[in-house]
Batch of 2 targets.
Target 1
Amino acid sequence: MNGANALVGTLADTGIEVCFANPGTSEMHFLAALETPRIKSVLCLFEGVCTGAADGWYRMRDKPASTLLHLGPGLANGLANIHNARRASSGMVNIVGEHSASHLRYDPPLMSDIEGLARPLSHWVRRAESAQSIAWDTATAVAKASEHPGRIATLILPGDTAWQDASGSATPSFAAQPRKAPDPARIEAVAKVLRSGEPTLMILANKAARTAPLELAGKVAAGTGCRLGSQFFTTRIERGAGRVSLERIPYAVPAAMAFLKDFKHIITVETREPVAFFAYPDRPSLMKAPDAIVHTLVEPDEDSVLGLEMLVDALGLGGSAPRLQAAAERIAPSGKLDPISIAHALCAGIPENAIVVDESLTSGRESMSYTLGALPHDMINNLGGSIGYSPPVATGAAMACPDRRTICLVGDGSAMYTIQSLWTQAREQLPVTTVVFANNSYNILKAEYSNMGAGPAPTERALTMIDIDRPTIDWLAMGKSMGVPGVRVETAEDLARALLNANGEAGPRLIEVKLY
């Protein structure tokens, strides 16, 4: 048994089920070790797809996946979606190949500071020093990635460590650490605020946005009159008709300030107070009213179900019934595509138990607020803001839940970052519907140009750095070239029909939504 066999065996022994891989020469022994049926190996044609898919896997399975990346440049290619995963508190184990120690002294062309690249976005980084230590290193990496909130673990695998003998090395065992309990004094302080009757917003995030904690929060809202909300971007929300719904704090700073202005208290559950995504001239970074007080109910590393149960008990609301989201009125989508008609099409086309990965930015920013009453589904957002996240995350989510339809909503500018995801979806025959909103522009930047005070509208030269219409991207040809059939739609009724048709397919489909 060599070091690579020990590494892969330990990954399997510690619960890793899948490895999203883009291997190179230095990782051939690891590649050979992946012959084991205990781990599913999935080829991705770009490292940003590997890391994004691992993020999507964690969001749906609450357990880390592994990636395999080729040396420092491969890790660098994957960093944008590692950043997004870190902001979403997704656990992941990155295995990064490295030259053998004897080769590094010659400064080969692909030599780089892998630790230096990994540390800013990793919670744990280690270089395997020998084949004998690799089982311990690997088990430690998985244990770190499996913590709550999820962590990014990066293990560097030198070539000689991979091929040297590892016989006799043992896999250590690490007991899963229970989530921390919130401080009872903090719970009582929040209960006192809620008893006051002053206008209060409770913001829930990460695992607090799942059905069980939402129902507890719903009891609090029903019994005290507080409102329940979410940040504009949330790791995963279980939403839809028959579930407790969350009001989404708007993205735009003026709209967010208007939404928050009347609240005297903000209670946070696995999150922090609302912060603007960017700094704008003459606008605040913190969007609550100046006299509003922020109270932490549950810290990001604590148990939100336990914290909300304690709060319900403190308030004596165990018998309260939460207010549930009503089903959306089924309005037949028709006519020109705009935020409202797109929302009607999505309400018609989101199947029950679907996974919706939203990176629609300009086109879907308004639409998604109108889909709260769609059939029950999970919605995933991009907390990190690095674009090109949704096709890879949808790929990983579909790998994690192959019995559910995943709908990936993405703008054309964002999709071009990681369009290689379609190839992996086709190869694995994943049930993903990718909806590309094609306005031939980084349209969000046109509004941001004015918001930043750069001018009332982009100049002609500035537009050349925002518009992507010369040449126009042929999305259907792009999808076909990677094995994903597609259809182009220009009306709301056609979008709804295309979504419903895709729901009946076993493999991936692409819908190009032409916006004018």
Note: The chain has a mean pLDDT of 94.
Target 2
Amino acid sequence: MKTKNKSKLFLLITVLLFSSLYFLKHKSFFKEDGEYKKVYNNEHFNSKIASSESCFLCHQNTKGYSKHHNPELIGCASCHLGNTNSSDKEEAHKNMVLIPGNLVDAKQTCGTCHASELHKVENSLMTTNSGIVAVDKYFFGEADSLDYHYHIQEIKNSASDKHLRDLCANCHLGAKKTTFGAINQMSRGGGCNACHLNYSKEAKQDLEKYLSSNKKEIPLTHPSTDVFVSDTHCFGCHSRSSRISTNYMGLQETLLEEDDLAINTKYKVLEDKRVYKYIEEDVHHAKGMLCIDCHSSHEVMGDGIKYAHAEDAVKIQCADCHFKENPNTIPFDSLDVESKLVFYHRDYKHQDKPIIAVKKDKHPLVNTYIDSLGNAFLIGKKDGKIHALTPQGDVCSRDNAHKNVSCASCHSSWTSRCIGCHNAFDKDEKNAFDLLDKEFTKGQWKEYVAEFSSSQPTMGVREHKNEKIIEPAIPGMIMTIDLASFNDDVKKESQLFHRLYAPNSPHTTTKEVRDCKSCHSNSATLGYGKGALVYEIKENVGKWKFIPEYELNKNDNLPEDAWVPFLIKTDKKTVNSTRSDFRPFTVKEQQKLLLVGACLQCHKDDSKVMNETIAFGLKPIIKKVKPTCILPKDFVISAILD
């Protein structure tokens, strides 16, 4: 009996000693560089402490761990919990977390070492989905602002909430990963796993053997938890809604079925059986760059601040890498702990060189550096390839006429368009599935889409902090909502109709820019929808005419895909955007754009007069027009240029 008590006491002392050393180890992560690197390189760690866990009685000689999550360094229980004092299988596995990293228990697992990162993730839009909830509630008539803050896991069962539960609430980091296996196109959520879980070929094979043996053949290869995030980690959620991931790959969604496809076509069938066709990939994707080459941990995990919408949370701009004169930089010694972790984990060697820092919030892009000659480079996180970062071209840097035009407005080759969306509630749907609670229920909102297509982006105006920036937009929510189908108290003929465009970052970047006419005389770009926008000259009189491609919608008598009517003022109270600070062009702005469009009927993009317009603006050039120039007669030119 005494021997048994001594054994228990020894085990307790061992565990306490390990805990103390473990705490000291992670505390020293926050010391300055010399001590930090010693801990990082594990120079002082006694691996026998970690291996004293009873887990090692059964789980021996396993491999596949990342260097910094090896159980010889941190044990098994720091991630999986359980009872490390017992050699009995049932007791040892009590309260064990089989799949650590889900946000529901991350404070007890990942968060014990990465508390700061967990705090950021919990407040990020990828966890809260606040913007998605806010927009949905506003246009269902359940809120009076587009900018309220919400959390997707706190929604109830109103018409809007049910709509989110049925169609949208799958894509948030709080969704639990409940099955073993690698992240794939079908993956949603999973907390820390969503980005950091990686299965090697051997780990996948061992998992298959484990499952096929009725969980008796214990895997010898463990999946890795590391910083090597691939585009597949992003794809599951970001191939939906604005479809950033698929756009980046050059793929546009269609309404085709897999059976509709012929052999050797330019179509691709995703794992969920959606059919996409290839258009043109982003130039960065073509060069082998990953999403995280631009969107670092500081953006992906967030900064701890609760933002209303995605564009508020994203800090990086094209000009951070493709700068006008000199980049904004930071020395290695001034990097924050999180950035140093990534730097060391990726085994970078450019401590002696300035690193580019994002202008908006100063966070560093640790995979960049400036050499002694002032040249900028980016190290691709996929393959370590060195990419030269070219400064802005002369056209961009000397262009005074387009100072308030975003880079994406000119450098995006295409973006998705979705029109004719009808939302109705089917009370009799027996196989309805609640994406938030992950359970079958009765009754479900269904979405019927008329058409998926693509075009060069429409343009809109962002009015923010006394600035007016022209940005790309898409017809994301031209839709009807049949409220009566959900609520018996609503009149049967009651139907909500919204004609809404949304700000968009297409992620279809090209080196070449769109030509001038594609903005100044393109009906879809200006917000009228697809169609023929023609400048007619009769008897020395010029006049713009527009013939829409689509029929007029009975709800507002505008073409099905339009944003605004052709050169007609709209009521200031009309809500036609998913953002309170983003709008279509006013009639005066439309006229100014079309005035240049009229000039482009005769003058080529690279002509002397157009180059002068770019350099000096439109007003001084218009004063020098020749009598042979035929400008739109129904435009009051002086008023347009004021």
Note: The radius of gyration is 29 Å.
